[in-house]
Amino acid sequence: MDTAPIQLDSRTGKALDSHAVVLEICEFSGYKIYPSRGRLYVTSDSKTHRFLSSKTESLFKQRKNNRSLLWTVMYRKVNNKGVKGEVAKKRSRRAVKYNRAVVGASWDTINARRSETTAVRAEAVAKAKASRKDEAAKRKARVAQKSN
To answer: Parallel, antiparallel, or unpaired: how do β-strands 39-42 and 48-51 relate?
Structure first.
């Protein structure tokens, strides 16, 4: 019996199905790298980096931040672009109305004034005007007495 050697996945170390296509992920852009595509870069400390293209390899070597490049997967994750999940409607807080008294008038007096009819209010205004006229007349009389 002729048995082929078992192939192992380079990332996980698990046995591969003979027909399975192994896709690598570009370290810089986050895109899929199909078989026989991409570039492999090995640093002096023996770390391997897989890149989709010479463009991504060049940007990596220039120490560019993939979070700041609009077309990378990392940028899209960081900035919540293309999120398909349920978008909850932002809840707005309703303004709570309070009934407060004003300086010099309690809440009860304010409510009493609101519920007054126009006839009652007109009568109160006429009374106030009459009392002011009387006070002014009394003041004039006092001033006239002092001057005599």
So the answer is: antiparallel
Along the chain (148 residues), what's the average pLDDT of each consecutive run of 10 residues?
Answer: 66 73 92 94 95 96 95 93 73 85 85 86 92 92 84
- The 8-class DSSP code of residue 102 comes to B
Phi-psi region of 38 (alpha: psi -120 to 50; beta: other; left: phi over 0): left
How many Cβ atoms are within 10 Å of 125's Cβ, its own excluded?
10
Q: Environment class of residue 57 by beta-carbon count within 10 Å: exposed (0-12), middle (13-18) or buried (19+)?
A: buried
Could you tell me if 21 and 35 are in contact, meaning their C-beta atoms sit under 8 angstroms apart? yes
> Who's near 28: CB < 8 A, 6+ residues apart?
51, 52, 56, 57, 59, 60, 66, 72
**The tokens of 44 are what?**
């002096």
pTM: 0.47
**Tokens 């001033």 belong to which residue?**
143
SS3 12: coil
3-state SS class at 137: helix
Give CB contacts under 8 A, 24+ apart, made by 10-14: none
